[in-house]
């Protein structure tokens, strides 16, 4: 008598489960934006959570420390410098205090958030990038080069900027005949993949301005698509079939004639937003208006894309943000965290691998991309490519203080790490003041680089005073921010007491 036993695929992520945080750890009373643009409306890093919110005239977004929970006061300061609704926000991967925002006012603005969060409304951006003729809805920071930002708008144009100087480096105006749905860099930042309303997937070299690969009709449906580069160079796309079924497909750029794998989902209308974790090779799919989050593992074995599980809840999501490895709790085997946007609430959802041991699980946390850039802007412009610089998560990861702390005493300026000498090139119109501030900031940067190299060469005893000094500076900055909040609230209390006295006296 013989029989075959079912073979179960071996994977340490087969039992990943999602768990929503308790209500007291959520952020309440957040007026999430109702803009119809298909973006996540949220961006998260190890320091801050940013959410695009409703604004009466103009556009604004909320920025709060990641440890924040409870109700958000209606008087809470926001970033409110755009003249029209904000469509997209993205944190810089190389400085946790720098965030870029794209808006319907055709501009992209870069903001510097002080350590500890905002104490007053922020209206002055450190850089204004003006190069699009229609609204801008796509942002993508370069993964390894400092201060390189890609933008795409409804004018079907892709722009690549040097944020350090405000300079427009490359402009691709004839690569796409219709609306661009999404843009994603590959691992070393040498190419980008895009999907367009013409249903085509393109692989583009932005420095040469050439289209390297094209695949027509990635998905047959007419609704929007998304595409992301995986760490091994493959491309994962989401879209719709001809029968309006949601699909996910895996492509090999070496041969785009046929997809490596295609998975059908359901017939919901929401666009599937893919969030990719390069360390675990997992993909999380979140659809606007859905009550579910699906997650998959991508492997080198057929069928290549393996469904892991499904998180389901009663409330539909308006959007969401994805927190990568640098911000997760390694002591609880948390491999990712998703911030789900409700109508008036932000709810964290932890993705966890069940383990009995309390020790650091090295197989779950390989070295991950750190905040230190592998290249300077000028090096990438000159044609160099480099993989991300990796850091270990053993013992947890602590976010370093802002590289631009000292610039907060006066008008914010973004200190660049460019190694070139001489004055910075002029910025686009409307940003001449920011450009002049960058040229003034170039002198101290030459001292920063050797100092950084010297710091790496010192032993552990030599770095301890430096760490203590950084911690002290961070505490002082937080105390200053809290003191400013107390002063502002005391002034508000005086005004309210005065109004109350007038009411009691019958003056009102």
Distance between the termini: 96 Å
Major sheet, described briefly?
A: 6 strands, mixed
User: Could you say which structural class the secondary elements and strand pairing correspond to?
Assistant: alpha+beta
Note the overall shape.
Answer: globular
Flag low-confidence runs: 1-6, 404-462
Please report which band the strand proportion falls in: under 5%, 5-15%, 15-25%, 25-35%, 35-45% or over 45%. Answer: 25-35%
The count of helical stretches stands at 3
> What is the oligomeric state here?
single chain
Radius of gyration: 24 Å
Helix fraction bin: 10-25%
Number of strands: 32
Mean pLDDT over all positions: 83
Structure description:
With 508 residues, the chain is an alpha+beta fold. Helix content is 15%, strand content 33%. The chain has three helices and 32 strands. Strands 1, 2, 6, 28, 29 and 30 form a six-stranded mixed sheet that branches. Strand 9 (98-103) and strand 10 (107-112) form a beta hairpin. The longest helix has 46 residues, at 460-505. The chain is globular and about 80 Å long. Residues 1-6 and 404-462 have low confidence and may be disordered.
Summarize the structure.
The protein is an alpha+beta fold and 508 residues long. 15% of the residues lie in helices and 33% in strands.
């Amino acid at each position: 008598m013989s029989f075959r036993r079912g073979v179960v695929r071996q994977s340490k992520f087969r039992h990943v489960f999602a768990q929503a945080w308790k209500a007291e750890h959520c952020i309440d009373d957040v007026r999430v934006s109702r803009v119809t643009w298909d973006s996540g409306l949220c961006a998260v890093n190890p320091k801050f959570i940013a959410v695009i919110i409703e604004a009466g005239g103009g556009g604004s977004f909320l920025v709060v420390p990641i440890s924040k929970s409870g109700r958000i006061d209606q008087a809470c300061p926001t970033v409110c410098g755009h003249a029209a609704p904000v469509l997209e926000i993205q944190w810089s991967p190389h400085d946790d205090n720098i965030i870029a925002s794209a808006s319907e006012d055709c501009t992209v603005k870069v903001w510097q958030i002080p350590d500890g969060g905002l104490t007053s409304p922020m209206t002055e951006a450190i850089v204004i990038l003006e190069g699009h003729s229609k609204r801008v809805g796509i942002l993508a920071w370069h993964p390894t080069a400092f201060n390189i930002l890609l933008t795409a708008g409804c004018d079907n144009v892709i722009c690549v900027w040097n944020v350090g100087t405000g300079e427009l480096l490359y402009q691709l105006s004839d690569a796409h005949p219709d609306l661009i749905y999404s843009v994603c860099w590959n691992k070393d930042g040498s190419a980008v993949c895009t999907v367009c309303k013409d249903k085509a997937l393109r692989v583009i070299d932005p420095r040469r301005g050439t289209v390297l690969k094209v695949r027509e009709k990635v998905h047959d449906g007419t609704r929007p698509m998304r595409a992301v580069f995986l760490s091994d160079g493959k491309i994962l796309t989401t879209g719709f079939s001809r029968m309006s079924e949601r699909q996910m497909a895996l492509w090999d750029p070496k041969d785009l004639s046929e997809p490596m794998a295609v998975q059908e989902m359901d017939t919901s209308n929401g666009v599937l937003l893919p969030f990719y974790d390069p360390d675990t090779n997992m993909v999380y799919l979140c659809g606007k208006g859905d009550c579910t989050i699906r997650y998959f593992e991508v492997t080198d074995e057929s069928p290549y894309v393996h469904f892991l599980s499904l998180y389901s809840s009663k409330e539909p999501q308006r959007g969401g943000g994805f927190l990568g490895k640098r911000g997760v709790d390694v002591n609880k085997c948390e491999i990712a965290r998703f911030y789900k946007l409700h109508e008036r609430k932000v709810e964290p959802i932890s993705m966890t691998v069940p383990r009995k041991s309390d020790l650091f699980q090295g197989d779950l946390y390989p070295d991950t991309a750190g905040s230190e850039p592998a290249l300077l802007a000028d090096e990438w412009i000159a044609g160099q490519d480099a993989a991300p610089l990796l850091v270990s998560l053993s013992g947890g990861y602590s976010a370093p203080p802002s590289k631009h702390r000292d610039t907060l005493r006066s008008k914010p300026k973004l200190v660049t790490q460019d190694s070139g000498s001489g004055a910075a090139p002029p910025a686009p119109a409307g940003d001449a003041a920011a450009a002049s501030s960058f040229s003034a900031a170039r002198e101290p940067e030459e001292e920063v680089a050797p100092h950084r190299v010297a710091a790496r060469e010192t032993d552990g005893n030599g770095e301890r005073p430096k760490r203590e000094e950084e911690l002290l500076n961070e505490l002082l900055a937080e105390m200053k921010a809290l003191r400013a909040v107390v002063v502002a609230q005391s002034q508000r209390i005086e005004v309210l007491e005065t109004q109350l006295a007038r009411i009691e006296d019958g003056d009102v």
